[in-house]
User: Fold these one by one.
Assistant:
Number 1:
Amino acid sequence: MTVPTGRRERKKAATRQKIADTALRLFLERGYDAVGIRDVSAEADVAVTTLFSHFASKEALVFERDDDFEQRLTLAVTDRAPHEPLIPALRREVQALVRHCTADSAAPIRHMIDASPALREYADSMRLRHAEALATAIAAAPDLRQTTTACRTIARFVIDAYAVAREADDPEAAVDEIFRMIEAAWGVTCPA
């Protein structure tokens, strides 16, 4: 996440974080379905319109780091060292994201998401959006000249690898296993 430089940007970022932190605390204390947008805005001491200027929906409050997740994956493609292979770069980033999301401190949030149909649906739509952003980054990489279909397929595999590994008994081993398959699939479309 980029750090806001100007005073106004810092204030906006602080307000956004305050809203997100307040929402998450209330959701975990009372249950996601028991907390409304007005509850969050009142507790965060902001107007409902201010809340909606930072978050498009109640579900977005739970996934407030959504843009960071997407950015980290696309940067794994665009910021690779010259001649660094794509799949190992993506594997490292997915491994880091999985470690973060499977930490003990993240368990209450994972349970809340699993228990809510609205949050699971939102997470599914996020995964599709992330896959499209990642596919676009892969397609734009000058050293990867692949078809749109290959880029979209590998991007979906990578996003699904994250989701599957998070749920595995041994997430790190799952990432390794899944990425061996992704590497093989990429090798078919990108023979050396």
Number 2:
Amino acid sequence: MAETLDVRDEEAVSRFVERFAGQLTDAGMQRMAARVFARLLASDDGAMTSAELGEALQISPAAVSGAVSYLAQVNMVSREREPGSRRDRYVLHDELWYETFTRRDQVLGLWEKTLREGAAGLGAHTPAGARVAETAAFFEFMQRELLGLMDRWRAHRATLDLS
């Protein structure tokens, strides 16, 4: 019995990239960074050169550069030298979403600390102080829940057939 390989439908890939990039943009990500990220996500090895990204997305080298700079700054991609070449490849991090949410956990902790200090300075019984204290409590709750959620994800991920 012959093994059949999935055939990539480039038009479907393009539709996915633009749709997901639009959703990421609606959620607050820069438009070009969202397009580059979605295109990297849709690549089989999770890595592409600047020229490949530019061609696939029909964007300029400057647009690619700005997008990958943003994505690298928020730790969603890294730059690697292509073996045997002077060209860089932009690579998605392994366990991308896990790492992204783990970093969000650190941000939540920082926000919570700042909010608690702000609530104390505003006065716990003032309307503003109570509102800021509630926000701090929300971030404390989210941080605690996120840690457990990430542990459950790791256990669940081990049961999936993702090869």
